[in-house]
Design goal:
This protein is an alpha+beta fold. The protein has helices spanning about 335-345, 355-360, 365-385, 390-405, 405-420, 435-450, 455-465, 470-480, 490-500, 505-525, 530-540, 545-550, 555-560; strands spanning about 15-20, 35-40, 45-50, 55-60, 70, 80-85, 95-105, 110-115, 125-130, 135-140, 150, 155-160, 200-205, 205-210, 215-220, 225-230, 235-240, 250-255, 260-265, 270-275, 280-290, 290-295, 300-305.
């Protein structure tokens, strides 16, 4: 039988980095889809539709865990930049082999960048990539050494900064851009006392927010040229990002041990999440909307949470789908069981309106689900269970089959088959009479004899044959053991024992026993096991044959024993 694969249902893998696609605007209204890019520990890129919860794309890109990624297109979101690095064998200076890849998630085309640079023995690892707001340029920064400026449209390097350029630890493109490319004066923020090494930075409107290695969050207002510090005491700040939306000045802050949401305008914390108290660990975060955040954990789950950072699980009906989910099991347990009993008992027989009866007391969402299931089952199903000539057992069997109630389906099938006087199917073999059960077991044994290849299967099947009284079949299987097998002698001796103990009072059995032992002895002698074969010949009364074998092997003194 040949099976043809037609589709794959992908599942989420443990992730190292996540990025939500550019937010919904008036320009991308028609083509916008809430896509989340996920970089996994296996080097794959997954694209998840946040609305449906499905993995829409999965591309194998890197040979190491994905450490960072950025969207490189907006209308629509269709391509990504990602990076990873592999350790260089024998390198003691921290040099690695970097992988920088551009991926088109629509076509699946993957293009590796910086191929010339990575041909060297090793280089400092990439620490971040940042794409400009207009998606024209991007910057590649390293743990040690100057950063690089790239043209995103042509995917070629424009400039590598000189080695004397100060090493950067955080980077963000200015949102004060124009499509015409006019030059703007740079802004220099004076150093703040009490701040450690800056690890991340984000910029929106006139606000620049920075995080450092000590857990401090610094807010700089470009208009008033004033700064405010928030001392969180949570350790290194791994990431800070502003929520989307005009005048929405909330920030999401990721630490080594948790997450916080702050309102920059009011300078107050909205909520926080601690690890491992609330979650095992959070690897990366991003905003899914103006009031929704995405949390990527070490457990492989990507959670969508509100500003309260609670209630991160959603039932299936909460997802938006193009097609109604046709599954009655999504209803509350008591409601589902009540509808199942109602469909079999037919309380609507007098009124004649089945849909009205089964949807009474349900919410609008539940009514829509029940209506979808009934439409899917069709009018023929409704007509069958409404027919007064159909017995109660047959109706409940139809309902159980339609609703996927497996235990109830088997129960009512037994009742229906026994009432009709028909033999039960093989799945109900334990309920059959003894003769039927034994004949089916013998049939299965004969089928398995032709397929038992591994020793564990042969041992199990031999035990089954002996218990079923199939002595000849068990002896035949034991004698067929390959002589090169380490257990061959044990199997052949067991065959002799079985033959000797089965029906000992029968003359025919005794003759069969002697024949079996002589055949085993001959087989052992041909394999060079002289004494084992001689012993069996003596036990069967073939002393002359045993003596001849000993003399042929040069054991004249031992032959005198016989």
């Amino acid at each position: 039988m040949r099976l043809t694969m037609s589709a794959i249902l992908s599942s989420m893998s443990p992730s190292k980095a996540v990025r939500m696609c550019p937010p919904l605007t008036t320009k991308n209204w028609g083509a916008y889809r809430p896509l989340l890019a996920v970089g996994t520990v296996t080097g794959h890129l997954q694209v998840v539709n946040v609305s449906t919860g499905l993995v829409e794309r999965e591309v194998a890109v890197h040979s190491a865990p994905v450490l960072g990624l950025e969207w490189t297109s907006t209308h629509p979101a269709a391509s990504l930049l990602s990076f990873a690095h592999c350790n260089v064998t024998g390198s003691t200076s921290g040099l690695v082999r970097n992988e920088l890849v551009h991926t088109d998630i629509v076509t699946g085309k993957v293009r590796h960048l910086r191929t010339e640079q990575v041909r060297e023995v090793g280089e400092p690892k990439i620490t971040m990539i940042r794409v400009s707001h207009l998606k024209k340029y991007f910057v590649v920064a390293f743990a040690a050494g100057p950063f690089e400026l790239w043209d995103l449209a042509k995917l070629c390097i424009l400039r590598t900064m000189p080695k004397k350029f100060p090493h950067i630890t955080a980077l963000e493109w200015s949102p004060l851009h124009t499509a015409r490319g006019k030059k703007k004066d740079g802004t220099k923020i004076p150093a703040e006392t009490g701040l450690g090494t800056i690890t991340c930075i984000c910029w929106k409107s006139d606000m620049i927010v920075r995080g450092d290695t000590e857990g401090n969050v610094n807010i700089w207002n470009m208009k008033t040229r004033q700064s405010k510090n928030i001392h969180t005491g949570r350790g290194k700040v791994k990431r800070i990002c502003f929520s989307p939306g005009k005048n929405n000045m909330k920030i999401l802050v990721l630490y080594e041990d948790g997450v916080q949401i702050w309102d920059v305008k009011e300078l107050e914390m909205i909520n926080e999440l601690r690890c491992p108290g609330d979650l095992l660990s959070v690897e990366d975060v991003d905003w899914a909307g103006s009031d929704r955040v995405v949390l990527a954990g070490q457990d492989g789950a990507v959670r969508l949470a509100g500003l309260a950072l609670a209630g991160t699980s959603s039932h299936t009906l909460a997802y938006g789908r193009e097609q109604q989910v046709v599954c009655m099991g999504l209803l509350p347990r008591d409601t589902f069981r009540g509808i199942a009993c109602m469909l079999g008992y037919r309380p609507w027989a007098e009124e004649g309106d089945i849909r009205k009866m089964v949807t009474t007391g349900l919410t609008e969402e539940q009514v829509g689900l029940v209506e979808a299931v009934l439409d899917y089952l069709g009018e023929q199903f409704i007509t069958s269970i409404s027919d007064g000539g159909v017995s109660l057992a047959e109706r409940y069997l139809l309902v159980s089959l339609a609703l996927g109630l497996m235990f109830e389906m088997e129960l009512w099938m037994v009742v229906v088959e026994q009432r009709a006087g028909r033999p039960l199917g093989r799945q109900f073999h334990v309920l059959a009479d003894r003769d039927t059960f034994m004949s089916r077991q013998e049939e299965l044994s004969r089928l398995h004899m032709a397929r038992a290849v591994e020793r564990v299967d042969r041992v199990r099947l031999t035990a089954q044959l002996i218990c079923l009284g199939q002595v000849e079949a068990a002896v035949s299987m034991l004698l067929d053991t390959d002589m090169e097998d380490n257990n061959s002698m044990a199997d052949q001796l067991l065959a002799c024992l079985i033959q000797a103990t089965a029906n000992r009072d029968s003359t025919e059995c005794q003759l069969s026993h002697v024949s079996t032992m002589k055949m085993v002895a001959t087989s052992l002698l041909s394999e060079g096991k002289l004494w084992e074969g001689v012993q069996l010949l003596v036990l069967t009364g073939k002393v002359g044959d045993a003596c001849s074998y000993l003399r042929s092997a040069g054991h004249w003194d031992q032959a005198l024993w016989l």
